[in-house]
Amino acid sequence: MILSGYLLGAGLGCGDDPPKVETGGLSSPDVPHPIEPFRRFECDGQREAMVDSNGDGYANTRHVYVDNKEICAEMDVNMDGRVDVTRVFKDGQLEKEQHDFDFDGRIDQQAYYLSGKLARKEIDTDFDGRIDTWVYCDGPYVGKLERDRHHRGQVDTWEGYEYGVLASVRYDDNHDGQIERWESYREGRLIKVEFDADFNGKPDHEDYQGSDGPVFAKDAVSCDGSRLPERPTSQPAAPAAPAAPAAPAAPATTAAAAAAAGPGAEAAPATAPLPAAGAVPVAPPAATSGTPDTVAPKGAPK
User: Fold this and answer.
1) Is the domain of 64 the same as that of 157?
2) Enclosing domain of residue 137
3) Are residue 162 and residue 87 in the same domain, yes or no?
């Protein structure tokens, strides 16, 4: 079997345990760590099961077990006899994996998982066999991204994201391990650029773009390629306008009030209440002939 002969004859790649998996977020420190080459994950155990998935007589998938639990698997995706994907499992969940996307026999990306969910990806974007881009997940979103933008062997660019949308970028332009340029974004629009002209580690002047700045990325970026949930709104809802105070009702003068006022007081017609705001006033009923009945006070003789 080609896959089995390749794996056992060439030797399984070995590698140390991965460092603690860091997740994304703007609070993560900007540390220019060195660039390292990929090393194949170890995949060996007590027994293995070889699978010929396309029926050509050659194994293209290898499952490895310890105590009847699968601990890793290796796959030849393009059927050329070389491993393209390696997956390592822990307690039944995916812990880490490696991919050779261009099928040249060298790893192009490796990823680490927490509780079966993607936490970090390390990528070789120029296919030279060395990691130059780190992607940190913040739940389903990209939370932070680090790059060796100039491929000089050290991280020189740090990107921060809020709910997967670009929020900030920091640059080490002269490769001295210190940031000299800061960019601030709002909903993917460049708002402000700050510069450290005297290289003391602090911005000393800025270029404010405001609402006229260019928009680089409006859409949120998924860390694992899955469909993203709706992002929380970044702007609080406008408070509702206060209700207009009700107009005070005019006092109504009735015959009863006139009687209480004493002899000689003349009863005035009752005052109609004011219409509510926005209401259409209704015309009063037409006057009728005759003298209207007078309402006597309670207890008064009729």
Assistant:
1) no
2) 132-224
3) no
- What are the distances in angstroms from CA 157 to CA 40, 130, 170, 223, 281? 26, 17, 6, 18, 69
Which pLDDT does position 272 carry in this prediction? 39
pLDDT for 10 equals 34
Distance CA 52, CA 1 (A): 9
11 and 90 together in one domain: yes
| Cα 148 from Cα 124, distance rounded (Å) | 10
For β-strands 157-162 and 165-171, DSSP reports them as: antiparallel
252 within a domain of the structure (yes/no): no
Q: Is pLDDT larger for residue 289 or for residue 143? A: 143
Q: Which of 224, 241, 268 is the C-terminal boundary of a domain? A: 224
**What's the pLDDT at 32?**
54
Instruction: Of 134, 147, 150, 164, give the one whose Cα is nearest residue 18.
Output: 134
For residues 42 and 86, what is the distance between their CA atoms, to the nearest angstrom?
9
**Quick one: tokens of 26?**
């703007």
